[in-house]
Amino acid sequence: MKNEIDELLNEVRLFHNHIVQVGEALHADESVTLGMRAVLEFLLKGGPMTVPDMARSRSVTRQHIQVIVNTLLDEKLVTLEVNPTHKRSSLVALTSEGRQTIQRMRQREGRLFDRTDFRITGNQLRTARRTLERVRVALNVKEP
User: Fold this and answer.
1) CB-based contacts of 46: which residues, under 8 Å, 6+ apart?
2) Tens-digit pLDDT profile for residues 64-86
3) Which among 54, 20, 17, 30 has a CA at the least distance from the CA of 107?
């Protein structure tokens, strides 16, 4: 089993590197990095939320998300809104320009997916997602 996990994780690394290259080429005309794109999409799907909430849900540091949000604020793709449940932690929300940007990027990606022959079924994709999720959850252990 150890060898199969090693092979899977190696494929995940190769996939990640490749998808970054594809994304950068596909969105070369955008002022948005793929990290920024991920935050924009997260806000599009989940609505306004705090930096700590985004960080927790993505299993990254608050500082990592804050750096991305600061850049998105500079680009006027997000705005800060009053958080009725917390005085010091504002809600990060998409601006109209931010919403248009992520929708444009998703449409571009959709066109790429439509013209790509993946040679796999929807069931195979769902199985792959569930497999990666199970490995991620299983590895979510703290070192002693």
Assistant:
1) 57
2) 999 999 999 999 999 999 999 98
3) 30
Q: What is the mean pLDDT of the chain?
A: 94
Domains and CATH numbers, the chain: 2-115 (1.10.10.10)
Cβ 69 vs Cβ 92: under 8 Å? yes
Residue ranges of the alpha helices (H) in the chain? 2-26, 34-46, 51-58, 62-74, 96-114, 122-138
Q: Residue 85 has which token pair?
A: 């449940």
Q: Would you state the structure tokens that stand for residue 89, as one six-digit string?
A: 């932690």
Cross-strand pairs, 93: 79
Tokens encoding 2: 């150890």
Report whether 26 contacts 109 (CB < 8 A).
Answer: yes
Q: Does the predicted TM-score (pTM) go above 0.90?
A: no
